[in-house]
Amino acid sequence: xxxxxxxxxxxxxxxxxxxxxxxxxxxxxxxxxxxxxxxxxxxxxxxxxxxxxxxxxxxxxxxxxxxxxxxxxxxxxxxxxxxxxxxxxxxxxxxxxxxxxxxxxxxxxxxxxxxxxxxxxxxxxxxxxxxxxxxxxxxxxxxxxxxxxxxxxxxxxxxxxxxxxxxxxxxxxxxxxxxxxxxxxxxxxxxxxxxxxxxxxxxxxxxxxxxxxxxxxxxxxxxxxxxxx
Length: 229
What we know:
Elements: E1 2-7, H1 17-28, E2 34-41, E3 55-61, H2 69-82, E4 91-96, H3 97-101, H4 104-110, H5 117-127, E5 130-133, H6 140-153, E6 158-161, E7 171-173, H7 174-179, E8 184-187, E9 197-199, E10 206-208, E11 211-218, E12 223-225
Parallel strand pairs: 8-11
Antiparallel strand pairs: 1-3, 1-4, 2-3, 2-6, 4-5, 7-9, 10-11, 11-12
Helix pairs in contact: 4-6, 5-6
């Protein structure tokens, strides 16, 4: 598994980091299996400059073990730079499974306290992950490192994209939802859901134990998907 962390790629008038991550994932899917795009919420604090919600995104892909990370890093870097938005401070982080797990604690801190660009860069150097600021203040490296680490930790965030999850509209049998890769469907209190129709317009499963988990609630006629971080 390779984790690609992105952050701070937009301004107040442009589309967000999540949309860019999905577009990059679409490009990468022409070459590699894309396992999903996840969103990770970081600390919201007036001392932290952010566009709207201070969230970052991670792209999860599978690639041959022999493939140098630099190949993927350069490909994503070029896509991000081609889409650079004035006023943004984008950062990019690419890490393999083991290195990304070494970033998880940093990501957890970034959800609770202010962390610095210097800390993110020092950690990247110590763990051997690829990290770069691609414009502006380059503060996006903080969220990029955090996203890669939190996604690798497997217990944070929600999927913005999982297979064809954005293609489903309206009511669908639970089997259609499971076919996207969401084998675990449960209520907020943990009860497994085995049958019924699901309103599939906005499926945003949570990432739990490294897998997508769709939380739902009963509306009286069908299941409604919930957003859980």
